[in-house]
Prior knowledge:
The chain is α/β, with parallel strands linked by helices and 247 residues long. The chain has helices spanning 20-31, 45-53, 100-128, 150-170, 191-194, 197-206, 215-226, and strands at residues 11-15, 35-40, 57-62, 82-85, 132-137, 175-182, 237-240.
Amino acid sequence: MSDLFSLKGRTALVTGANAGIGQAIAVTLAGQGAHVLCAGRRASDDTLAAIDAAGGTGETVLVDFADPMAGRDLFAGRDVSLLVNNAGIIRRADSVDYGEDDWDAVMDVNLKALFFTTQAFGRALIAREEPGAVVNIASLLSFQGGIRVPAYTASKHGVAGLTKILANEWAPHRITVNAIAPGYIATSNTQALQDDPARSTAILDRIPAGRWGDPGDIAGTAAFLCSGAASYVTGTVINVDGGWLAR
């Protein structure tokens, strides 16, 4: 039972691992024994330093998911059995003013790149006949509408749907596919909300936990979903939101 949560001997690829939620997940997976590939358009030097300080191992893989097909060759020659799709962007504007360029940019990174990267991962695992795990980062806006983020909301609804269909198709191959829906986490993606006193107060007033979330709050759930402890958990979207959706 002591090894139930261990990731020793596994290799994980975490997208968008240079900061925020992705960084916290990468460091936590490394702390559980995984060798972590930190994938993103910039080197993940700070993340790798934190992994090293925790006694883990990792490396940077440079890839820009603004090209939704950029991840299709990531798994060639790499024995990766864990994938965390965290990379994402957000563009804010009233829906009546939202532009096509912003729509396409968000959908390309948040949904299209996620699918084709995961497709490549699944193909590689199935060909090797090895089990594995996918963890997608969804959002509260996989369930709610939000305001001024139409493309982000649509993309995160799509992430929840892809999580379920891939779980259905890949369960016979011993590949679990789950998602985490973070609540309001203090990262650069939510900086505009944190800096708006009225919005920040309204958000905090609804969170039973009474605080903004920390990236580390998401990392433990990701580690669980990657571990043997979650081998019978698939097709789920787990809310890590301080009680927001329960209110």
